[in-house]
Design brief:
Structural class: alpha/beta
Number of strands: 9
Strand order of the largest sheet: 1-3-2-4-5
Shape: globular
Protein name: Aspartate/glutamate racemase family protein
Organism: Comamonas sediminis
Helix content: 25-40%
Radius of gyration: 16 Å
Largest sheet: 5 strands, mixed
Length: 232
């Protein structure tokens, strides 16, 4: 199969969610946006389109502008195939929400961050706090002053994903994400909800909810809501 060929979650006809994928090799356990089982469990058909060369470091740490047009082209290709909704596999692509949305005629949900404006007193857990700039937050419509907490930069989760490594200790990655969420909760006791920025974090949604006692929102839960709201 060609590298950029669409991969279907099931032998199903449109409509489907088109997922614009980074070029990655790190593990994607169930719950991750890039694991087909995540969507099969929800009964949502998806197709995935990998943008060649768009590594996590290029998108998150470098915000490399050379990949803007390839993502736009991928979104248009997904629409041409029959996508009813388009998303991405990196929350930092919220930076291009307006551009992606204006490039196609179907709804685009570039990031879980888009829901922050509709949630009560949210806080954000991210893979890279230093890279989640005010410009990206503003592009996603995140209310000014929304607290942000990153996972440990030298921890298992951040190191393996941003380094695009083939192996990851899932249990330790969960501890990293939970620790960040707990730190966020402790620093901001007024919070009423948590948003997981990273599309690899829905794997740990339940663990974060148990540890913080707060409702937890992520890209998978947001897409399930948007999918259910689409016209029949």
């Amino acid at each position: 199969m060609p590298p950029n060929a669409a991969v279907t979650a099931a032998d199903a006809s449109p409509p489907f969610i088109g997922i614009l994928m980074l070029d990655t090799q790190f593990p994607r356990p169930p719950g991750d946006i890039g694991n087909l089982q995540t969507w099969a469990t929800l009964g949502i058909p998806v197709r995935m389109h990998k943008v060649q060369g768009a590594s996590p470091a290029k998108i998150v740490r470098e915000a490399d502008p050379r990949f803007v047009q390839p993502f736009v082209d991928a979104a248009r290709a997904m629409q041409a195939q029959g996508a009813a909704l388009i998303t991405t596999s990196c929350g930092f692509l919220a930076a291009y929400q307006e551009l992606l949305a204006s490039s196609v005629d179907v709804p685009v949900v570039s990031s879980s961050l888009l829901q922050c404006a509709q949630l009560p007193q949210p806080g954000i857990v991210t893979i890279a706090a230093a890279s989640l700039t005010p410009r990206i937050l503003a592009a996603a419509g995140v209310p000014e002053g929304t607290p942000v907490q990153g996972v440990a930069p030298d921890g298992e989760f951040a190191t393996r994903i941003l380094g695009n490594e083939r192996e990851m200790d899932i249990a330790q990655a969960e501890r990293d994400v939970v620790a960040a969420a707990v730190a966020l909760r402790q620093a901001h006791p007024q919070l009423q909800s948590i948003v997981l920025e990273c599309t690899n974090m829905p794997v740990y949604r339940d663990a974060v909810a148990r540890a913080t006692g707060l409702p937890v929102h992520d890209v998978v839960s947001l897409l399930a809501q948007r999918w259910a709201a689409l016209p029949a």
